Amino acid sequence: MPEISRFFGIIIALYYSDHNPPHFHARYGEESVVVEINTFRILEGQISSRALGLIMEWAAQHKQELLEDWELARQGQPPKKIAPLK
Fold first, then answer.
1. Which helix (H) or strand (E) holds 22?
2. pLDDT digits (tens, 9 = 90+) for 21-39
3. Nearest Cα to 72, choosing from 80, 62, 81?
4. pLDDT more than 70, % of the chain
5. Taking the domains of the chain in order of start, what are their residue ranges?
6. How many angstroms separate the CA atoms of 8 and 63, rounded?
7. Which residues in 10-78 belong to E strands, given as ranges?
């Protein structure tokens, strides 16, 4: 699972050839969520509200890049790194 970004202890990653809808995986410590890229809806998992707020802020800033990386990963190509939240 390629890591595409890391900030404040949160790791964002995509799986190669993953299923639709387009989504990313976020991990913070032992907690994790799967977030749909187009709607930012949580598809599965739980994570602290603080971490979730940071994840959503980052995702909103990088939605187009996430969609581009999703397509690369679906084609088996390495996704590009995305700038962390600052």
1. none
2. 999 999 999 999 999 999 9
3. 80
4. 100
5. 3-74
6. 19
7. 10-13, 23-28, 31-36, 42-46
